[in-house]
Amino acid sequence: MELSKQSPPVVWIDDSKTFSEIAHSWRQASCLAIDTEFERRTTFYPKFALLQVFDGEQVYLVDPLKVECPEVFRQILADPTMVKILHSAKEDLEVFYYSWDCSISGLFDTQVAYAFTNGTSSIGYANLVADCFGVQLAKEATQSDWLARPLSSVQLDYAAKDVIYLPEIYQKLAAQLAVQPYYDIFKRECQELCQIVKQVPNFEVDYRLAKEVFKLDARQLGLFKRLYQWREEVAIRDDRTRNHLAKDGVLVQLAMLNPDSKRLLKRLEGLHPRTIRQYGDQLIEIIDNFNRAPLDAPKLVANPRDLENMKTVSDQLLKAAIIVAKEAGIAPAILASKRMIRKIAYAYLAEEPFPEVWSGWRGVMLKPVFDPIISQFITSK
């Protein structure tokens, strides 16, 4: 697991006692560069495969298959006064939260920082390193099996390099952000990323945001709601990805077909035979119970294409968002992408749930200018 001569030493940790001792030494650091490797192809929860930490002197590769999370590391992650540098942190935050019950404060997401300072969203780590240092990172280990042991020298080298550049990137981007009027907005964005991972699903609302539900009549939508809730609960309980159980479109087909036997389930295109074998009886029971119960039909979900003024409203909201972004000094795509604007316009016009970002700093900035625009169309109905 040797790196180049200029690279810091790499330490492999696979016992909890050593991990705890090293973590205590990290409490003296002003910042830590952190990354994770995990597997999530078929499971609802990520399988934690490797933790990488760089304290500015040494890179530590921690084996989560062998160690338990010490309380001191949990405290370090939660300490808002110590900067935790991660790149594109969303999935790493989920890994820590679901695997080790850890919450992070003091996040500095280098992908988000680069978007604010350069106006380019979703830059990958390799491209960011290339942009900052002119270094081309190898990519052959990206899709490798991180749960396998022992890890290869290529994997170890790849894992170490995922964190060794982060402190210098942080210093560069933090200096640029510190003199910008939107620095507080950037910090709020990082804080919101850390909070989103803790959000609890709301089955009474979330089903209305699923794909193709506007195709369903009132009774079918009521059944879809039950099927959607079943899928979410089973995905969590059995640790299966939603799509491996049944995609949204398949649940829509189920609600339309209203089958009364496993034989009819097999007619559904896209419903995997494994799902029928394991859960077919449950699906038929849910459908049968729904058909026997008094109908409690939810409000229909509108097709965005059928909403009067949808395009006009979206266009006006986009123009307003561009003005707000310019005044704040940030790229319009960071404040609200065109896709997000359409979702917000739909939520207003159809009286449906807003995107989750609406409850954060974006909603605070945009609602005062969006409400007057929307009122022109709502009152004119």
Summed up, the domain count is: 3
Going by CATH, what is the homologous superfamily of the largest domain?
A: Ribonuclease H-like superfamily/Ribonuclease H
CATH architecture annotation name of the largest domain: 2-Layer Sandwich
Instruction: List SSEs in N-to-C order.
Output: EHEEEHEHEHHHHHHHHHHHHHHH
Over the alpha carbons, how many angstroms does the gyration radius reach?
A: 24 Å
CATH topology term of the largest domain: Nucleotidyltransferase, domain 5
The number of E-state strands comes to 6
Count of alpha/pi helices: 18
Give the distance, in angstroms, between the N- and C-terminal Cα atoms: 67 Å
CATH C-level category of the largest domain:
Alpha Beta
Structural class of the secondary structure composition? alpha/beta
Strand content: 5-15%
Share of residues in helices: 40-55%
In spatial order, strands of the major sheet run 1-4-3-2-5-6
